[in-house]
Specification:
Number of helices: 7
Strand content: over 45%
Shape: globular
Largest sheet: 22 strands, antiparallel, barrel
Mean pLDDT: 88
Radius of gyration: 27 Å
Distance between the termini: 53 Å
Amino acid sequence: MTAGTGQAGWDWAMGVYFGKLRGGVALGTLVLALAASSAEAQQQRRQQQAAANTQPNAGDAPVVLDQINVQGEGVPGGALLNGPTTTRVTRQELDREQVQNLTDLANRVEAGITFNRQNNSLNIRGLDGARVLTTIDGIRQPFLIDTRINRGAQNAFDFDSLSTLDLLRGGSGASTLGSGALGGALAVRTLDPEDLLRNGRSYGALAKTGYDSTDRAWFGSAAAAARMGNTSVLLQGGFRDGHEIDNKGNLKTIGATRTAPNPGDFNQYSFLGKIYQEVGEHRFGLTGEFFKRADRTQIRNNTVSLTGNFRPGSYESGEDVERNRVSLSYDYKLPGAFIDEAHATLYWQRLKRNDITNAWRYTSIIGPYARNNQNEENSYGFNGYLLKNFQTGMASHRLMLGTELRMSSLEQYSAGVDNCPARPASGVFTGALTTCNNLHTNQADQPKVDGKLVGLYAHDEIGLIDNRLRITPGVRFDWYEEVPQNTPAYFAGGSRPTSLPPSSSDSGWSPRIRLEYDILKNAPWVKDVTVFAQWAKTFRAPTADELYGRFGGPATYLRTGNPNLRPEIGNGIDVGMRFGDKQLGGSITYFHTNYRNFIDTYQIQAAGVGGLYQQGGITGYRNINRAEIQGVEINGQYAFAPNWLVRGSFAYTRGQNKDDDSFLNSIPPVQGIVAVAYGTDRWGAEVSAKMAGKRDDVSTTATTPPTTGFKAPGYALFNASAWWRPAPEIADLEFQIGVYNIFDRKYWDAVNVPLSRPQARDYYSEPGRTVKATMKYQF
């Protein structure tokens, strides 16, 4: 039996089981939907027949097309995101643009952002990883990485379970959201019963299925909601099964010349349940959420060769991501009372990522080779804030007070199997077993880390001159502590640590002041015109890996954390103007941010200079003094005729390390999106283009070996989509199809190309022409 056979059998059995589970989730919800559909359809027909003589033809009726909303109010947590650099995408907009992941969002809706698949994080204003904060229903998501794998799990949610998606650009959100929002924040909120209970009905359901050729994936989701008196419930489930993401490479050779992607498979499934109880003006809620995705890839690139140690067919890698959450919520809203509005969440969350390898070694240390590198964080927390409106003389006030309390426990462990014997007392293998010096397993590469976070914030929006002038001072204070714990697995590591590193603790203030002035109110064409300026200071605490990671061993190399790292600090301004409404509106923003204490990797000791780590030297983390990012963002929309809409988005970003005047490799090229859409109640269509300039401003890292940012040519992608509701008078059934990158253009997303590129250039290209088809039914 070769390595991985047992694992393959287990994966197959679990695949069958979870396939049944996913089917059960979807089928169960669909049964709820269809059981009530007959009665609902009859009710609709009676109502529509009574109104038939007064309703115009649905196919000719003017409609307002889905548009992106500037700022983020209207839902619990929206006040924390409200501002001139925040845009909101609703459930309707996500469906209309067929957005089911962050790459879709970047290519079709929001210029200037990129989903970096290399580290599984969103890039906003040239920053990604731990420098962009992600929250789900207000709960922060950790950037879970370690010394072996630099991939987080911030996309551990199902897009079909979302109600809204808020994108906050820049560091102004740190004054309410806290650490991690240097580049910006992605805040998603899951469906509530009210999203399905339409037109005063006491029940509702939504089901969707489709196919996406980008990764040859079939997907589906179903949700049902009901209201019984003062109690409302929601159940939602979804799945997605597919394969590797395609590219424009066509060489399916083995090794470094390969340009086609490695063949792979994945399955993803999720479940969401909510129950709310209203007591007067108070609403109490209980939410349970589960998400899991499992990827398996058959390696065919430079890692394997036909005659080498690792060979095709005997090397499989994988990644499992699982997130679980249980939360209690409280919402209150009664304008004019002692407190106008209050929201609170008490939660437990677990995020777990496993990086898996199953292989067979053929030439050295012959035999099975398996690794399961696990990172798991359990967190408990409380988020809450309240709002109060009041008047003092000629000034109006909108006061917000809030807090975030969080405790976490992070544990990493790498289990494995190989044919290396127990490590000798000297810690160094010799002779035929020398290779075992590089095979570190059954150990922890960092100590268990217990963390604490306390955040307090206050903001007051002061309105003057009949609220045309608004001044909003605010500040957030954060204190954090990371404390390493003594575990045998850490001291069993190949790097042979002899003591625990010290704890890391610091605090920071994140002040913000915003000025807004309405220079025009209810003017012709543009309606309202507001100019704004804001200054904000933000910070980002080091991750546990940056503080305490320790991977390597004597006679090889060492990658080590730095417990003395300082938090990253940002000082930034946004200046701009926003105008209009859904008919004609948009905004333009110039931003400039200076950063201090940027955390960067560097070569502490070069390879081959003696000492314990001659093979690769020592690599670690340090704070660099200064970095700078600036740019311009523009978005707008114009409903220039009944049923017609044109929209656009543009972003230009430039960033430099001011210590050595080198460019930041995380900065995307200039980008723009333009779309023209037509829609009625019965059908609609959209054509769009995503354009990007070339990127030549890259730098070379001072590591062993050195790496260089990818120089990407410019590109223009053209897309088209259409949707059709065959009988809106009877049932809300909709079919939609989209063709993306119509002309099959070969292009590279510069931010998504790794710094180290052992494969041929086309291996890192993006998908060519793709097709996505969906069917949705809602009542």
